Amino acid sequence: MIVREAKLLNGSKAQYKALDEAIRTAQFIRNKAVRLWRDESKVDKARLSLLCKELAREFPFAKKLNSMARQASSERAWNSISSFYRRCREGAKQKGYPQFKKHSRSVEYKTSGWKLSEDCLAINFTDGFKAGKFSVFCDRETREDLFRLKINRVRVIRRADGYYAQFCFDATRKEIGNYTGNAIGIDLGLKYFYKDQNDNATTYPKYLRRAEKRIKKLQRRLSRKFVKGKKPQSNNYQKARIRLGKAHLKVQRQRKDWAVKLARCVVASNDVVVYEDLKIQNLVKNHHLAKSISDASWYQFTQWLDYFGKVWDKTVIAVAPNYTSQDCFNCGHRVKKSLSTRTHQCPQCKIEICRDTNAALNILKKGMNVLGIEWNHSTQGHWETAGEPGTLEETTTPAVDRQLETVSGVDESRITL
Ligand SMILES: [Zn+2]
What we know:
Elements: E1 2-9, H1 13-39, H2 45-58, H3 60-64, H4 67-90, E2 106-109, E3 114-116, E4 122-125, E5 132-137, H5 140-148, E6 151-159, E7 162-169, E8 183-188, E9 194-196, E10 201-202, H6 206-225, H7 235-268, E11 272-276, H8 280-285, H9 287-295, H10 298-311, E12 315-319, E13 343-345, E14 352-354, H11 355-371, H12 380-384, H13 391-395, H14 397-410, E15 414-416
Parallel strand pairs: 8-11, 11-12, 12-15
Antiparallel strand pairs: 1-5, 1-7, 2-6, 3-4, 4-5, 6-7, 8-9, 9-10, 13-14
Zinc ion binds at residues 328, 330-331, 333, 346, 348-349, 351.
């Protein structure tokens, strides 16, 4: 599935209000579905879609929403219920009991209730809310996809700076990648955003930290304007709220942009990418680390690694992080160290390197084990020279290529240990 986004422009105030009402109705139906599931026993997906019909009969405003959009909102409720069941089956610690939504921001239409103009420059929402015609503002690629591909779903989203439509296309992105014969092991860390086995480090950009400071400031201004128990809050409060929302949106976009570009770069220049599957939720519980970890947005980065791996048919592997920073990459001796110890010193083989590089080497080794390739640590330099023609063809490429075929042939390119 490909998702593209466009902004909905040139609508009147009343039109945007109609979109708001559609969003609110979708939330209403979702909450009613969760309510039904909580109150009655043996509620399944079919029962929830029946509920949509009942609600449409009972409430005139629910009838206004396109029937397929009504179904989509009940499906959303079912999604949260079924993933709750799944987590229970798996015995997860956090079960995520389905909750009611209070500030829903989106409504999902399927194939009806909207009409795209022939030149794809405008979209018309035709269901009972009569939101009408909006200009579709997007980049060139999105416009091409709108012309070319079949649209499965249209999701209308309200953001701090306006209304957007997400188009979901029934296609997968496949491209021919640039195959280099390189492999990389990535250690995600605090001091560096990541470090690979050849000691190349990337740091988390400063501008993102600066933007986060600005958010803090705006948040303080907002809470100063808050009056307890007052409804509605003052106009100045609303303005400050919108300003804060926009600042959040900006940081979110910058962070995503950075993560996508970095992941793209990493996957483009390597055939095999191995990273550690961090349980980020666990880490964030440690409050000393919390700020720098959650803002370092590792999770987003690893998600994009997986994505580009699929697009270019490359091998992206997540391995368990157990002892990757403690074991010696050279002899396997376990060297206990605290977070503040920056170097890895092995008493057994007397080797001394940066702790992150040691971890990256271990991670790469683990990943190679998954692929069934014997990877020799003493070739640390060997991988560096792997970029040179000659040595590359003889030693690494055939094995890696063969493995690539089998792995991508059997399953998706992601293997979790
Ligand atoms: Zn050692």
